[in-house]
Amino acid sequence: MEVARQHIRRLGIALVTLALANACAFGATLKGDPGTYLSQLKKLKPGDTLELAAGTYASGLPIHKMDGEAGKPLTVTGPESGAPALFTGRDGHDTVEVFGSSYIVVRNLELDGKGLDVFGVNGRDTSHDITIDGLTIRNHGTNQQVVGIACNSTPSWNWTIRNNVIVGTGTGMYLGGSEGDAPFVAGVIENNLVMNTIGYNIQIKHQNSRPDLPGMPKKAVTVIRNNVFCKAEKGKGQSDGARPNLLVGHFPESGDGSEDQYLIYGNFFYENSSDEALFQGEGNVALYNNLFVNTLGGAAVRIQRHNGKVKEIRVFNNTVVSKGAGIRVGGGDSAHKQIVAGNAVFASGGISAGEQFENVTGSYDEAPRFLRAPQNSPGSLDLFPVAGKLTGKPLDANIFGKYEHADRDFNDNKRSGPYRGAYEGGEGKNPGWLPQLERKPIKSPGELMAGPGPYVKLEALAKQVIAQQGLGKVLATLRTKKDSADPQEKKEAAMMFESLGGEAQRRLDAALEAKAAQPLDAIEKFDRLAADFAGDELAVTAKREADALRRDPKVRKEQEAALLWTKVEMLVGRLQPVNGKRDPKDAEFLKKNSQTLQWINAGCLQIRQRYPETAAAKRAQDLLDQYR
After folding, report:
1. Strand, coil or helix: what is 193?
2. How many whole angstroms separate alpha carbon 107 and alpha carbon 133?
3. Helices 615-626 and 553-573: crossing angle, nearest 10°?
4. pTM
5. Which DSSP category does 198 fall into?
6. N or C: which end of the chain has fewer CB within 10 A?
7. Which of 576, 519, 583, 529 is nearest to 551 (CA)?
8. What is the Cα–Cα distance from 202 to 184, expressed in whole angstroms?
9. What is the pLDDT of residues 494-516, one digit of tens each?
10. Residues 438-455 as b or e (16 or more Cβ within 10 Å = b)
């Protein structure tokens, strides 16, 4: 017993020392080239960045058992512009391997699979909080089973996959296990171009149950937004490419994860040469503000049973042009509502759904009466409403207003309510991007906060907001200019204040809502708000709230306990699976991880004893029960 106590004390000192060291550390920048990068990779510590020079890297990128921290990821990046850091495929090894790692960012690389039977990026052994950003992935397409970005053998969560170009792979992204036992949870997939895959552009598999793993969300949302999906070609003449562009499977039928949702918005879906739908889904899906064009015979949208139930479905404010079916919703679970509303659908099949209202429908040939250039090729294709068309009464905000970005259209412009389809209408001229086969340009956070404009009198203030400089002082100025005697200045101030002030108030409300149940999260939200809007009364309120929480003894204990829990999580991430699983009842697993499990046990006991009744203590007890 005394030995155990000494071990706990030693671990406690080590954990606290490590925590303090990390708190004081600033991330270092290391340089790497094809001859040195592997040795440099091993030196990375939380917060560090490895900058790779342009060149050809023939030994892959092995990110094995590497852990950053929340807010301090390990980052590996190629050049921002110019010649790339090019990683070439090699037999028997996937090009980028992310195994048993956490808080990792991989950015700005080019992957050339050289036609080998290897994946571009492969995540295994429960890797979480991973960002794959700005990769170009090509020549990973020998067959449909070869994948550009995969995370499908063990549970994973908090993956962000953004700004990538994936062309000519077997499958663009394959996320989640085929048997439903390796769920992909709380992902963000945004601003990617995925085209000319043999099979799916993206498939996210169904989930049988939500594993009880430390850190895995029990309730989450997976967001798929602002991507371009194209299957105009099958790829290399393969005959096994009869797959939708995007398919999402169901969440667990009960328990943790059963209320999870897919939010799918702002995407451009173009063509499917295999007579399949552009989109297919089940479970809980909100599909809105998307463009669908399929002139090759398949359907645009098909909601139906695949491996599970069709539950809460909301399909609204989409624009569809298709020679096949438009929107099909069938096999819905009677315990949930499936609603199709506010869409503009020009297809041979129109809409088939149980509950539908306030849609505009017509045949494929009728589309030019309502849309500017609906039958042109990408680049000149324009699905914006013809002036005076596609209007009706506003949709019920109680049904649709709860979904993020539902108040903005495909171009990120504020919706007024009455327009059908993916666009906020106007004078018939599209003010945004004409869909084409490239990554969709999206507005920056600053552009969104500045609002739609145009700004003449307040152009200088708008530039400040777009650059996200001095937001508090801008907001304070707008409070006075809203009452300006100059009508134009007054109008511009009201527009900008609605966007900038609305964003600030939304963030304040979110922080206030988190105070009781998630005080540490609330402190972080208040601090960011106070920093971003310094100079305005709203920042004063945020700082006062944050300071009050910090003075609360209970919150101080929560902070200290959370710091130690982070270190325990790092230890859990280092547990080595046996046969792909971390089974605490498996004797081989226990033997292989004996030392690490002792450290985890000691750390959990320390948190529970020193910080009882904290959120970290509950997590520690759950972990002790799991590995007892």
Report:
1. strand
2. 5
3. 30
4. 0.80
5. S
6. N
7. 519
8. 13
9. 989 988 998 899 899 989 988 88
10. ebbebbeebbbbbbbeeb
